[in-house]
Specification:
Elements: E1 19-26, E2 37-40, E3 54-60, E4 63-70, E5 77-84, E6 89-96
Parallel strand pairs: 1-6
Antiparallel strand pairs: 1-3, 2-4, 4-5
Length: 110
């Protein structure tokens, strides 16, 4: 069972001057976007991917975070040491999912 939430992740504190984290997911293109859980370690809640597999966390308290992307039963992908500064967007980059759970990675043909 996969549980995801459309709510914006709650931050470690009620910092009004937080920043944001943006990025996208690559790999395992044969899996539905809503099957992935994208969250920050130590922070409650998760965000969903849009149709381009982009994600965005807003109002994140300043600090250093670990981003985790996972799907039930598969190895999680992690991006560590994401530094968030007040009032700025931090780019997490492209997070590569390597464990597709036996589903081949479908690459669109030109």
């Amino acid at each position: 069972m996969i549980i995801t939430s459309r709510a914006v992740a709650r931050t470690r504190s009620s910092n009004q001057n937080g920043g944001s984290i943006v990025g996208n997911i690559v790999g395992c293109s044969g899996l539905a976007n809503n099957s992935f859980s994208v969250h920050l370690a130590g922070v409650s809640g998760s965000v969903q991917l849009d149709s381009s597999r982009d994600f965005s966390f807003t109002n994140v308290a300043t600090g250093t975070y670990t981003l985790i992307v996972q799907q039930y039963g598969m190895e999680a992908a992690r991006q560590e040491n994401i530094k968030v500064s007040s009032g700025s967007a931090t780019r997490a980059g492209s997070i590569l999912i390597k464990d597709c759970g036996g589903v081949p990675d479908i690459v669109p043909q030109p």
